[in-house]
Write a structure and sequence with these properties.
By secondary structure, this protein is an alpha+beta fold. The protein is built from eleven helices and six strands. The strands form two sheets. It has a four-stranded antiparallel beta sheet, with helices on one face. Strands 1-2 form a two-stranded antiparallel ribbon. Helix 5 crosses helix 7. The radius of gyration is 36 Å and the shape is elongated. It starts with a strand and ends in a 9-residue tail after the last helix.
Amino acid sequence: MHKSTRAGRTGPVCPLSGGASGQGRPYVKSGTERSGRVTGLSAILALTFGLSACVQVDQAAVGRADGAPGAGLAASEQAFTLDPEMEDGTNSAIIEALLVRRSVLEPGALRGVADAVMAANTRAAEADLRAALLRAEAQSYNWLPTLGPSVSLTSLGSVVANLVLNAALIDHGARRAERDFAKHDVEVTAVALAEDSNSRVMQALELYVAAEAARARADVTAQAMERMNHFAYIMRERVNAGISDRADLQVVTQKQDHLAADMASDRETAASAMRELQAMAAVPVTGLTGLSPLASPSLTAEALSVMRARAESARAVASARAAQAGLLPGVSLGGSVGTDGTDFAVNAGSDGIGLGIGANMRAIEAEEQAAAARVGAEREAAERAIAALEGRLQSLRRQHAEAVRLARQATENYELFAEQQRAGQRGVTEVVGVFETKIRADRTAVGLRYDIVLAELSIAERLGLLVDGDKM
């Protein structure tokens, strides 16, 4: 997540106060008294900028950016770094909370996978954040008067060109709400970037863990194939000697082929997952093997979905307040200089007050309550989702412990049957059946271990703890 760097801020001096600027109240002559159009334009500029600076609230409230508007654009084209300080001089609690987050991935294979895929991220969400930052920077200048040309054709066929300047004196907080909307829009896109980064890392880790699980199951089967091949050899010799029936050999061969097919399938699954993972990574990941430890998630970490809901709700409230201010009459100062002379005036008015303005005002006030309700609903949904994931994690741990116990019992049963078979008390097919049960139990126990890791990673993703906040 990134934010353009800013220089120190300085507030404007009110020319009407005769303060530090050393200037008194300006006097603007009429169009017949002025000596030239340039002098009239300068007077309008001085008056409008001065009134705008005096009527607007202090620097922290209006959120002015540094220097001239052109300087802000130049800064935005330079390096972007995440900064919790917003354009209005305040710090964003949401961005600060994102910055201090630390990944649960300890140094090792899992951390290597995360670093590899983050280095190759296309960063579409980052582009959205940059656009939001530029919009916020643009809105930080909305307290300044607007200046633009006006060209019209008169009924006599002559062209009248004027330079029109307009400054809002009283807007009931409309521009302040517009700046707040832009600030909260930055927060929304920042959380979206965090969600995108964590989701990308989770996809990569799912592929890697799936590949590791498949390789682990294939290793278990590969170790069993040597013993299964020995059983098949014994059965063929017994059939050739006329001791056993060919049907018994066919049963053993079928079990041997089944294990071989499982091993081939696991290796294909692992290879496919690693190829897909490599397509997401910027550096080779084929050398990564095994699992690295995971730290315990922070107890104070807030789910990213809740943070997004808070930012979206604050943005909706700012939009509602801007709409509310638009229903009330405002005061502005306008002026023009051009071919038809120079003039300025103070204007007051609004889009019109209808009979439904009361209901509109109450509806806008109700938006704040609705926003708070949406945050509460999202928090409840996030807590339920995390509780469900934690419940699944506990269930998987119980299943893994049970699977390990069953695998141990299956191994003991096989060793007993093998001993009895060597003593001539058991047939080969009986021993092969017990051996196959042992292999299935071992494969299940191995697979559950990786399911536990995926459940732990899912909880970390929900909390946004797969990527360090200052590296997103």
